[in-house]
Write a structure and sequence with these properties.
By secondary structure, the protein is α+β, with helices and mostly antiparallel strands. The protein contains 4 helices and 8 strands. The chain has 2 domains: 30 residues; 137 residues, no CATH class. Strands 1, 2, 3, 4, 5, 6, 7 and 8 form an 8-stranded mixed sheet that branches.
Length: 169
């Protein structure tokens, strides 16, 4: 009986310690300020990297005036201007689609995905599409993307860029 009580007490203590430590670790990550900062930094890196790599190849595209698509929660964290990049959100329920369909054109569109974690890194993914609409349906043609990984630097007490990986189709 004493052995069983001791085991239950140790189990309870272990679970409460585990829950407390996870809560403390996630507290800084889940704040909107921390998320906003990571998204803003990731967008800056993404825009600069794609421009440096592709800007000389595709001179017709305005690399600093972009259409983005993201979950509403992400959109609320990001301002309409980040340094020299103007952010425009694609609104699939407005006259933007009618304008795209009327001009029979396609626009470059970047999808920002929610921050994920991969082991000890936080990852922000971007997927590039050529978007078009004929008024009846929306079409997404996959073009490429970018994955930006952040690691936490204990000495600086902030997330630092660990890796930037562009990919294409």
């Amino acid at each position: 009986m004493i052995r069983r009580s001791l085991w239950v007490a140790l189990l309870f203590l272990g679970l409460s310690t585990l829950t407390f430590s996870q809560g403390k670790a996630l507290q800084g990550i889940t704040s909107t300020v921390a998320q906003s900062d990571l998204y803003l930094r990731a967008i800056r890196i993404y825009v600069d990297t794609t421009y440096q790599l592709y800007g000389g190849i595709d001179t017709t595209r305005n690399w600093f005036r972009r259409y983005f698509e993201a979950d509403r929660g992400i959109q609320d964290l990001i301002p309409s201007q980040i340094e020299n990049c103007r952010i425009r959100w694609l609104a699939t329920d407005t006259s933007q689609l009618a304008d795209i369909a009327a001009h029979k054109r396609r626009i470059p569109l970047t999808r920002i995905w929610p921050i994920t974690n991969a082991h000890d890194t936080l990852v922000v993914d971007f997927t590039d599409y050529w978007f078009s609409s004929n008024g009846q349906e929306n079409n997404y043609a996959l073009d490429g993307g970018c994955r930006i990984s952040f690691l936490y630097d204990c000495t600086k007490k902030e997330y630092v860029v660990f890796k930037v990986k562009l990919w294409g189709v």
